[in-house]
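Q: Convert this sequence to structure tokens.
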Amino acid sequence: MKGMNKKALLFVLAALLLAVSVVAGGKQEATTPEPQKSEATAGKQEPFDLQALVQAAQKEGEVVAYFTSSRIKDVGTAFEKKYGIKVKGTKMGDPEQAERVIREVDSKNVLVDVIGFEDGALLEGKLIPEGYVINWVPPDLAPLLSPEDRNPLVFLWQPRIFGYNFESYKEPPIKNIWQLTEPAWKGKILIRDPAQTPANLAFFANIATNPKLLEEAYRSHYGKPSGISEKDIGWEFLKRLFQNELIVMRSDEDVGDAVGAAGQKEAPIGFYTLTKQRDNKTKNLKLATMKGMVPFMGYALPTYALMVKNCPHPNAAKLLIHYILSEGHAPWTARDMGAFSPNQKAPPHPDNEGSWSDWQKRLLRIDNRVALKLRQDVLDLWLEYGHKK
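A:
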């Protein structure tokens, strides 16, 4: 994670430790707590008048947003042009966002209105249940969103996938996830540092709780049962993967550049967001997706949009959320490849290799509550077997 604020990271890790009850000894069994009701899901819904919301938002005059993506500035420019409301948008990583939101709400001096946030485990383990943020779903757009995308509200989906250099390999070199643990790929798999990438920790945690998929993949690849218990096969897979000398990079961009550079004979493979493949045109990279990889080729990375408790511009905050779920998603989706709107009427970019429904069949969907429960165990496993000082 480029520009990682170490103080913010430590703050958030401390907050998560308070949010999670750790059982001493061995790996955790994931449990599912009762979901928190949001403003859009709790009780009877009020009639929604978009024009009235626009007028109320215009009276407030501005909206402050912290987003993990720099494209909030492009969105802000278009939003201001359409509604006359200034967006003070700042690109900010999840740890710093969480630190600021918690501090601002606790001190009753809230400056930010909306957050665009990726760390679902922290969101569902700390920020939502403790009332730091509010989940608001535009009533007129709710029917266009799947129920799973409404609470917490997802405004953007990105596939984070295994990819390869098509100049080095005539076809995808990885067909089965167990190949990643084999000697042939030792020291040749590039990923973002799991210790600084909460979404990757969440992915690994969810792998650990999908034993049937792993057993089926093992049988398919090796032609025999794994001989590993259902309880342990996920952790055994992760251990073998981490022991295979994964190469840690700081960002998806660094991973994609190293994997996709032209002129390589035996290029490494990498784990990066699909958006990186736009650089095939701008940087002459040779990146391709690991099509056909079983049981999945990566995971669905969500970005959530939520209001902050006691925010100074609540109507402008709601309008901005409405906007990025409708025409305002364009800077992420319509104008660039690699990301998808959860809005079922939003067309995919032509270079996205299919619709979002197509991609969901190829990806593991993260359960944030599993991630919250298990990612410390995953981090411990990584630090023991995969982390290189």
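The longest helix spans residues 368-385.
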